[in-house]
Amino acid sequence: MGQSHEHADHSHDDHHDDVGYHATVGGYAIGFVLSVILTAIPFWLVMNKVITSPAMTAAVILGFAAVQVVVHVVYFLHLDAKSEQGWNMLATIFTVVLLVILVAGSIWAMHNMNTHMMPHPAHDAAAHEGMNHEGMDHSAMQHEAAPAVEQVKP
Question: Which one-letter DSSP state was computed for residue 81?
C-alpha cells in the first residue's frame, strides 16, 4: 500500500512544465500558408514558362521543394535543434544524407547504363544510313529495280 500511496501524491499537473515544443494553431497556419506559397510559385513558373531553360526550371523547382521539406519538418513534424536534445535533428540530417546518396547514386547508375548500353541516335544514323534490318545496302538496288516511268506527251 505504501507504493500506491506514493503515486497518489503526484498530481496530473506534473507534465505541464515540459520544455518540449507545443503546437499552436498559429504555427500550423504559418506552415500551411508557407506550403501553399511554396507550391504556387513553382506551379506559376512552369505554367507561364517564366524560365525558358528546362534545366534551370527543374533546379528552381527542386530548390522550392527542399525549402518546403524544411517547412513541413519544422511546422508540422515539430523537429528542431531543441527537441529531444537535438537527437531528432541529428536523425533527420542522417536521413537526408542517406536519401541524397541514394537518389544521386541511382541517377548516376541510370545515366551510366543509358550512356553505355543504349544506341546513340547520331552514331546510329551515320552508321546505318542506307542499311536495312539485315545490314544490307539496298539503296542502290532500289534505284536499279525501280520501273521506268514513261512520260506521256500530250
Answer: S
- Long-range CB pairs of 59-64, under 8 A, 24+ apart, other chains included: 64/38
Q: What amino acid is encoded at 81 in this protein?
A: A
Instruction: Let me know: does 63 contact 56? Beta carbons within 8 Å.
Output: no
Distances (CA, A) of 74 to 23, 32, 45, 89, 139: 11, 12, 26, 10, 67
Amino acid symbol at 108: W
In the structure grid, which three cell numbers stand for residue 75, read together?
Answer: 511546422
| Angle (CA) 110 115 121, round 5° | 130
Q: Is 14 helix (H, G, I), strand (E, B) or coil?
A: helix
pLDDT at 60 over 90: yes
Helices vs. strands in the chain: H and E counts, helices first: 6, 0
Query: And the C-alpha cell for 67?
Result: 525549402
pLDDT band (50, 70, 90) for residue 41: very high
Contacts of 74 (CB under 8 A, 6+ apart): 31, 80
- pTM greater than the 0.70 cutoff: no
